[in-house]
Known about the structure:
By secondary structure, this protein is α/β, with parallel strands linked by helices. The protein contains 10 helices and 8 strands.
Amino acid sequence: MMTTAAEAADRWAGFQAEERVNRIREAIARCCAACGRRPEGIRLLAATKTVPAWIVNQVIDAGVGDIGENRSNELLEKYEDYHRDKCRIHFIGSLQTNKVRQVVGRASMIQSVNSLHLAGEIQRQCEKKDQAMDVLLEINIGREESKSGMRPEELEEALYKINQFQRLRVKGLMAIPPAAVSDKEKEKYFYDMNQIFVDIKSKSIDNIHMDCLSMGMSGDYLLAIKHGSNMIRLGTALFGAR
Ligand SMILES: *Cc1c(COP(=O)(O)O)cnc(C)c1O
């Protein structure tokens, strides 16, 4: 994070939100044309970690209607400053149960539900605040020890259990594939995620709406779109290197 206002102003001097957003929208459109998809079907979410609210607001004003925060304290710091009438705030980072109460009431979706334990805490906080919460279940598609998320084979049973948490509205799945792999391997993970998504969707489980498949970041979003992603989460491509 930038330490002084002067440094921050320096870092962001000349930032052209509209141009950045347009360039990405064009890349999405070209990719969609190549793989026979409709660009309107792809939601662009701005991943905003370390980016000051006044810069994020420029991206929101340029038409990006979804932003994603990673850390609850950063969400708290920036929340009041965001142009909230023009965007939905998603929580996309790993979430400790003791931080859930800071997120419920501020984010409109939590994309990183990686355990029943966390789902239960979201239910509890939603009951307290008498509200509901849209959630995505995070899948550990690379089966990495270092990463959280449900294993693909745990998903169906988890969905039946989560159905008992009436304040949660399951809207789909989220995944972050292993980082340092070839494009070919990346594609395999995205392909597998799409298979899981389509498979669960076809089961039409009560109260489970498989609408959203959130996958693809700055380095791989075109591959993700090719394999069915309908929400890409971009940080670096929008805001530059952190
Ligand atoms: C940071 C982050 C992103 C965006 O990463 P970039 O590579 O900078 O585009 C997407 N999703 C999550 C969960 C993140 O933490």
